[in-house]
UniProtKB/TrEMBL annotation:
Keywords for the protein's UniProt record, in alphabetical order: Cytoplasm, Schiff base
One Gene Ontology biological process: carbohydrate metabolic process
MF terms in GO: aldehyde-lyase activity
Keyword Cytoplasm applies: yes
Name listed for the protein in its UniProt record: Transaldolase
GO cellular component: cytoplasm
Keyword RNA-binding: no
Matching Pfam families: TAL_FSA (PF00923)
Main location: cytoplasm
Subcellular localization, as worded in the UniProt entry: Cytoplasm
Top-level taxon of the source organism: Bacteria
């Protein structure tokens, strides 16, 4: 399982990338708009933080296949390193995924709400599919079940496309997506920070430090010798 940051905020990305085992960053138009800066500059700055080897996901705005392909090719000329083009699973999007796969440009099929959307996108050549866990829940569906069924379909039919689960509102959803077999997940920075947050851990560390200092004092720190 690989972990991605779902954000375009440079400060958050820099911090999370420093402390956590991150494989890359996913962005979308809504996330980029929030930064109120030229989007190409934001994407280039994210690349500087990540380095060249981690994946950066960029979503197209165009809604017809030929324009989607042109937009994907444009991003490749402006953003260095490993980039993945995010494409919604419309008919035009599926056509574009086929075209970009032929050009060896990797894609992620996004706005996935059903297992069949994921299956068709995978057969078209998408490297990743992104089921929207919490948004499915909001529509009175079961986002985790959808992730599970997509994983089952891909396993049954020996499809190499990876499931990149997205749209989480809490740690429990992330945990369940991992349990059900999602190959990768993308999570907002504030939720990533909660993945290791547990009150007993902080309490235990303080007890260990207190007991040590009671016996050896602060000078007992081996780094001070």
């Amino acid at each position: 399982m690989r972990l991605y940051i779902d954000s375009a905020n440079l400060e958050q990305i820099e911090r999370i990338n420093e402390y956590y085992p991150i494989s890359g960053v996913t962005t979308n138009p809504s996330i980029l708009v929030k930064e109120k800066k030229p989007y190409i500059q934001v994407l280039q700055d994210i690349r500087k933080i990540l380095g060249e080897d981690k994946e950066l996901f960029i979503q197209v705005i165009a809604d017809n296949a030929s324009e989607i392909v042109k937009e994907a090719e444009y991003f490749q000329t402006r953003i260095s390193g490993k980039i993945i083009i995010k494409i919604p699973v419309t008919e035009e999007g599926i056509k574009a995924i086929k075209a970009l796969t032929a050009k060896k440009i990797p894609t992620l099929a996004t706005t996935i709400y059903t297992p069949f959307q994921a299956l068709i996108a995978a057969k078209a050549g998408a490297k990743y599919v992104a089921p929207y866990v919490n948004r499915i829940d909001d529509l009175l569906g079961d986002g985790i079940r959808v992730v599970s069924e997509i994983v089952t379909l891909f396993t049954t039919h020996k499809i190499s496309t990876e499931v990149l689960a997205a749209s989480f509102k809490n740690v429990q959803q992330v945990y369940e997506a991992c349990l059900t077999g999602a190959h990768t997940i993308t999570v907002a920075p504030e939720i990533i920070e909660k993945l290791i947050d547990f009150p007993a851990t902080t309490r235990d560390v303080r007890v260990f430090q207190s007991q040590w200092e009671d016996t050896f004092g602060k000078a007992g720190n081996p780094l001070l010798k």
